[in-house]
Structures are given as structure tokens and as C-alpha cells.
Amino acid sequence: MIGCVRPKNARDQASGRRGATVVELITLVVLLAILVAIAIPNMSPVVLNYRLRGAAWQLAGDIRLARQRAVTLRKRFRVCVSSCAITVPTGAYSVEREDGSFVSETGSAIKLPQDVTVTATATPTFSISGAASGSTFTLTNIMGTYQIKVMSTGEVKVCQGSCS
Question: Would you say the C-alpha torsion 84, 88, 93, 98 has a positive or negative sign?
């Protein structure tokens, strides 16, 4: 059969290669957007947990830094959430050094994520030796609680839930 050409039928065309149409791409994007919209609310508890944990470690780091600066600069330092040298809104704290009286080290309050609240049993003040007046900070949001305990030795301990 010289010169015979096999006719193309629907089966041959279906097995051939072709690209995606614009309509198929738009449909895929819409389906992905729906899946993401469903997944985001399910992930919000995870985000809230990370915000709380991150805020606890941020505050603990600033408390440790205040102790280090007290020893290095040979001035008393404190970390406060109320009765500070500057106005501290709810959900924030201030790191302050003593220069005759206490002044803000940063010039403004350090804000925590908006869903995290912070309270303290006392205002820990670090002496030039690094020792501190003890205190316990409690950070909470709807997902739980973290406590940061400042020992009289100046040691800082972070606990999920409560410190014992």
C-alpha cells in the first residue's frame, strides 16, 4: 500500500498531545483558592500557638538582655508591665535602666502580638551583680499560657503552662 494514509479518528486524537486551555487553568486556580480558604481557618490555632510561644521567648530574651546590660553597664535595669517610666499599653512591656530614676531603654513600649496579654507578679529589677528581685510574668491568649519566672539569682525560666 504505497501512498496510503491512515485516517485520524477520535481515538488517535485523544491519545495525542495537547496543552491545557485557559478555561482549565482558571478552573484549577479557582479550586486551589477554595482549598486554601478552607485550610486557613483550620491553621489559625497553630498560628495562635506560635504567636504565644514567640512572645514568651521574646520577653524572656529581653529579660536576659536587661540582666546582661545591668552587669555590663553597672546600672540597675528592670522589665515592667505597669508603673513604668513610660506609658505601657496592655499587651506590652518596657525595659528600663536607672539613671537617677528609671528611664526607658528603647524609648517606647515593646508590643507583643495583639492577641497576647502579659501580667507580672512584680517588676524584676536587676542589680549590677545580675541578681534580681523575683517575679513571674504570665502571657496568655485563647490557646493557652506561658510563664516566665525570674529567680532571685537572675536566672530566667520559660514554662508552657505554669512554672513550678
Answer: negative
Q: Which residues does 23 contact at the CB level (< 8 Å), separation at least 6?
A: none
CA of 59: how far to CAs of 77, 80, 81, 124, 146, in Å?
A: 14, 11, 11, 13, 11
> Hey, how many other C-beta atoms are within 10 angstroms of the C-beta on 104?
18
Q: 107 in a domain, yes or no?
A: yes
Does this model's pTM top 0.85? Answer: no
Q: In angstroms, how far is CA 50 from the centroid of its own chain?
A: 5
Domains contained in the chain, number = 1
Query: Per the domain annotation, does 16 fall within a domain?
Result: no
CB 106 within 8 A of CB 124: no
CATH of residue 64's domain is 3.55.40.10
pLDDT tens for each residue of 114-160: 889 999 999 999 999 999 988 999 999 988 999 999 999 999 999 99
